[in-house]
Amino acid sequence: MSTAALAIDLDAIAANWTALARLSQAETAAVVKADAYGLGAGRIARALARAGARRFFVAVAEEGAAVREAVGPGPEIGVFAGHMRGDTDMIADLGLTPMLNTLDQVTRHLEALPGHPFGVQLDTGMNRLGMEWDEWAAVAEIILAQNPVLLMSHLACADEPGHPMNPYQLDIFHQMTDGLGVPRSLSATGGVLLGPDYHFDVTRPGIGLYGGAPFDRARPVIRLDLPVVQIRALTTGEVVGYGNSWQATRPSRIATLSGGYADGLLRSLSHKAVFWHEDRPCPLVGRVSMDLITVDITDLPDDPAYLTLLGPHQGVDDLATQAGTIGYEILTSLGPRYDRRYLSG
Ligand SMILES: *Cc1c(COP(=O)(O)O)cnc(C)c1O
After folding, report:
1. Residue with CA closest to ligand 1 atom 3
2. Which fold has domain 10-210?
3. Residue closest to 63 by CA, chosen among 107, 12, 98, 29
């Protein structure tokens, strides 16, 4: 086996959902967009449905197919992008619930699929998706008469608990939705952690399910082991990899691992990342290339069969820091070449 092994702990994902559900004084949905943050939407949606999740969200209608197949006809699958042109058949056939973002989408939905469930996304200041206040004020009455299943908005700064944008958006959301008698949703993972004022009727955690910040108490979900393809000895002064960017300052042993930027091991990890052999750190040396990574194992007493990049000593957010990015990007970059193994039970 020369592809790296990506172990995905379904029990840990279910436990993280349950923990966030306990914190949420509300129904807790599960966000499984982008193939469940790169980890496999079908397997994960099924595990979360078994743990009790009854509502899922995806970014675009196409992503609803795998989730519907996994969870069967019962659970609601919301679509953040709403009802886009060309999506009507998919929304109808898969039984998706679009979160309508614009007047055009409202018109399209009510004309094409009258009586089909929908939600409405409202913009409370992020200026990304959803209807603005004046638009909403103009059409709320007409839309409310069609019985939306959810009014939702999204927080821009929820990962910073002290940020003034949080209470600002909370206030706007109240003003836009108080007294309308429709279930409401404001919070993703960060908002769940801001406390019950932010929970309303439905919370929408994503990253926290997959073990990422800002849910510090999450159980780690993934382990990534890269097999060693070759080990060589270098004399002082020899160089490694593209651009000769690393030079041995002592006699060294270099392991070449199977895995590279084509697998989402970002090139910005060059010279920065650390691999692990049990409790011993081994620095990545030279540049990350498409399929291969070189690691200095001079200080190991023996020759490892593989080295660990994500595991007990180093989580997704640690690696994100080394790469200069966030855990979300590390997860969603993990490529299709891994041997994904789902652990459960
Ligand atoms: C991605 C997303 C979520 C989930 O966010 P996390 O930070 O991963 O918990 C929730 N709501 C919307 C609108 C999103 O785009």
Report:
1. 188
2. TIM Barrel (3.20.20)
3. 98
